[in-house]
Amino acid sequence: MIFRKSAYDIAVDKIQSGNSDISFANIGLDKPKVNKLLRAMLNNDNIKSVDFNNCQMSDDCAVMLFNGLLLTPSILNIQRANFDKNRISELSSIAIHNFLLRAKSLKDISFEENNLNDDACFYIASILPKTNLEKISYKNNVITNKCVREYIKNISEKHTSLEEASFYSFMPEVSADAISKATYKELG
Known about the structure:
It is a single chain. The chain has helices at about 5-15, 30-40, 60-70, 95-100, 120-125, 145-155, 175-180, 185; strands at about 20-25, 50, 80, 110, 135, 165. It is of the alpha/beta class. Strands 1-2-3-4-5-6 form a 6-stranded parallel beta sheet. The longest helix has 13 residues, at about 145-155. The radius of gyration is 17 Å and the shape is globular.
């Protein structure tokens, strides 16, 4: 009988072999799996990109992941992070906030199609001047027009490295003309 490794086990093996681009895209993650991948990351200081797109992560798993990433040697080297299509909400805001403060090389992060609301958006924005982020995406979250306008105004008034903040939303109460591919660079 031939034993085939799961996509998850293959991704963990890549971490353990020193791979710099880590992808758990489309792999369902729960707390035991997050714990195992974080343990593997403790021995890899080469990680530059992490992809957790469509992992069905709840806030419990997301908080565990963000907090665990703070303990890995790669936290200082990660340049790109994708957390799209999960179930991340404002309950993960503090962990996201702390992750962004420590990830000094992070240039691009995406939270598209999650459940982040205005409070989460503002909380994350409060530390952007202390990061090196160039691009952040909140597309298709539960963020209102008022939040987007204030976010863009506040970011444009503060010195940040941020070049693009994307907010496009499929929510009916958020008008496309107010948000469609909004960046503070265009509106600032």
